[in-house]
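for the recovery benchmark. tokens below, seq after
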């Protein structure tokens, strides 16, 4: 799923919100809860989309919070700003403001005063150079960074089919494609991020955060599968024919409640010490 159509992309973000929330590593939230805070916690959320992270995380953290939500898309920021009143775990107030910005150009100065930096489903859309700049900004801010639900390229279907691996490889290559002169990291982004933080001597914790989708997730599986197959076919046009028959079988399985999908992601908690 791309962000070429803002309304369609916003709908996709809303559709995946519950699956993202269920996938994220709960132990990282527990570690963040245990950190003492001298005053309101300033959280900077990079690539906020429709505001999924603040809705998920703010109510799990104690104490007053001030969130700054960043995105390049004004329409997404408007949706995020409409999240409504939020409260911390202990009932303390949560303030939310938005800022339109090019995430690939943020610096440590932009994040000054942050007590926590967050991002979800962002890393794969960056280039190696952009990721390096983002890591510099996060390290320079001098606070923990929580990077969540970053794709790893692994997908497992139940029941399995012989074409699964070939389609997955084509999709992963598509995610590494060059767009407007930018070569995206795609499923290599998590390893690249870990290496970038390691080079700067910053502690990194890594945990799996896979989507585990089943009979109750038919709408999400259908939307994801449609985009997955379209990208694989675009990358390797010779797969388009076999993919059509494959899609019919998979859609029949979804309708019958017989398809399960595990889609690999990882979470990173950086700089907690």
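predicted aa per position
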């Amino acid at each position: 799923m791309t962000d070429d159509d803002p309304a369609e992309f916003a709908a996709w973000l809303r559709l995946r919100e519950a699956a993202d929330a269920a996938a994220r590593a709960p132990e990282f939230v527990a570690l963040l809860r245990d950190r003492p805070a001298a005053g309101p916690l300033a959280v900077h959320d990079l690539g906020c989309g429709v505001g999924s992270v603040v809705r998920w995380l703010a109510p799990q953290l104690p104490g007053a919070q001030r969130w700054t939500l960043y995105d390049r898309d004004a329409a997404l920021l408007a949706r995020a700003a409409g999240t409504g009143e939020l409260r911390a775990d202990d009932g303390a107030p949560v303030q939310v403001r938005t800022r339109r910005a090019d995430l690939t150009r943020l610096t440590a100065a932009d994040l000054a005063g942050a007590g926590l930096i967050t991002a979800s489903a962002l890393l794969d859309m960056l280039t190696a150079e952009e990721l390096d700049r983002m890591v510099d900004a996060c390290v320079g801010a001098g606070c923990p960074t929580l990077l969540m639900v970053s794709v790893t390229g692994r997908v497992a279907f139940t029941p399995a089919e012989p074409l699964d691996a070939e389609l997955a490889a084509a999709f992963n290559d598509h995610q590494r494609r060059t767009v407007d002169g930018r070569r995206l990291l795609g499923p290599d982004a998590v390893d690249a991020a870990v290496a970038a933080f390691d080079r700067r001597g910053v502690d990194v914790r890594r945990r799996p955060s896979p989507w585990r989708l089943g009979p109750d997730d038919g709408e999400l599986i259908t939307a994801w599968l449609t985009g997955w197959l379209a990208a694989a076919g675009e990358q390797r046009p010779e797969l388009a024919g076999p993919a059509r028959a494959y899609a019919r079988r998979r859609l029949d399985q979804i309708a019958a409640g017989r398809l399960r999908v595990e889609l690999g992601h990882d979470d990173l908690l950086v700089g907690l010490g």
